[in-house]
Amino acid sequence: MFKHSIFLRIYAGVVILVALVAVFGYLLVQVINYQRAQEYRESLTDGISYVIAQGIERQPTAQQKKDWISDASDLLELPIYLVDSSKVELSRSEKKRMDNQQAVVRYDAQTSVADIYLGLPSDPKHYLFINANKIGERQIKALPIFILDYLIYYPGQEKEYLDKIHRHFSYPIEIQPILSLGLDSEQVGRLRQDQSILLYRDNATMRGTTISIVSPIPNNPSEVLVIGPVPMFNWMPFQIAAGITLLSLFLLSLGVYVLIFPLQRKIKQAILALNKIKTGDMSTRLPVEGTDEMASLSSSYNDMATHIQRLIEAQRELMRAVSHELRTPVARIRFGMEMLAEEEEYEYRLSQVEMIDKDIEALNTLIDEIMTYAKLEQGMPSLDIQSIDIAGVLEQVERETQALKTQKDIQLIAPDIDVVADAERRYLHRVVQNLVGNAVRHCDQRIRISGGVEEDGQAYVCVEDDGPGIPEEDRERVFEAFARLDDSRTRASGGYGLGLSIVSRIAFWFGGSIKVDSSPDLGGARFIMRWPAQRSTVQQLSKTNKSDL
């Protein structure tokens, strides 16, 4: 069903495209956030790692360094120890961070554990290793202790050295008056008790939620150390959301254009072809690709253009043939009128009048044939389809032909009276009448008329004669309007070349076909018209034939 409907394919394509773009957007966010999260972890550890490294560097002996590291491990409740630098393989970017006195963070997403490596300038053979297997309030409140431990070596110069190490931090770190923070009495009381406090603030701006650490400064009750505000990691900041949205819209627009482009291309081809038809160029045809609506439209357009072209050619041929066919009887009538005016003998005048009457009748017959052919050629006629007995039609034509005293031996092989088929009686009678009339003109002596319904559900009528027959190369051409063959089928044999064309069009509108070959028994021409015997099949084929025009 999908391959037969271009619109369903477009709708399905849009749904699939939306799903693919959504998956792509999700994966892209994950990739971007992976890098952002890594940078965020490094930015949080860079400053405090530098302060810890400076604390270790100040210890004069190796034992004191180990003791300091042990105390730091107990304070943070995290494993901290020295590792051999030769046993740690660093990437190029990690080595660059080590050279810049920055921390190397290796995060395991499955265990949610971060391994932190710190370089020690005085001990290049070792790295300080911190296994950050948990980060909680205790670890956060321990951070100011390391900074205050660093500043304790510079009494009276705390702010100057704080500014000096601030470049290693990605967040603010400063000493502020306690009254400027707008703390409540409980928070101030905890600070008076030498306890650090955490301040969480929800920010309506793009920074989002932030956390600040406020720690008291020994021997300085009016000022506190403020670390932060440190922004919490935002998995979907405005910049990424806007960028992913715009990129997704662009990809969707591009994908929809790709889906619509074949339809647009085919529509442009159809418009160009229609514009050429307006100029009178009927030779343009559309390529039929696939089995969807546009393929049906292209096929219908091609059939329409072919039909219009054939109608125009048939009209031109009709005009040429009519003008030619009318000249002979008109000339005879004019000649008869002149003779009638000059002749005084009564008997001769009666004979001339009779000849003129025959020519007028010939004109009436020609006009009737032309009108019938034009009606059948231009479009589907109004068919009054009924279930009729084929034998009745054949017998009626046989009686009418016998009444003409043709002196021909007409043999009727009629089916049983209960053999019926769906057809328009008037047009079926016209088919048999034209075929029999054609056989009368071209046979030597014998004509055979037969009909019935075959086992495959096809009704048929057949007319055979014992005349010279029709050459195989001319059997298609006999059904063309005003077509006359040489030798036996000439103007001298009568007719206007429209009878078989009318039969061909009636067969077409019946949803059937007509063909001519040689009669196996009589030796002359055999014409057989077949059409579906059931009305539903006839209607369906008629619709199909209409679409083929």
UniProtKB/TrEMBL annotation:
Stretches assigned to coiled coil: none
Membrane topology: Multi-pass membrane protein
Pfam hit, one: HisKA
Keyword field: ATP-binding, Cell membrane, Kinase, Membrane, Nucleotide-binding, Phosphoprotein, Transferase, Transmembrane, Transmembrane helix
EC number: 2.7.13.3
Domain HAMP: 261-313
Top-level enzyme category: transferase
Main localisation: membrane
Protein name (database record): histidine kinase
Gene name in the database record: bfmS
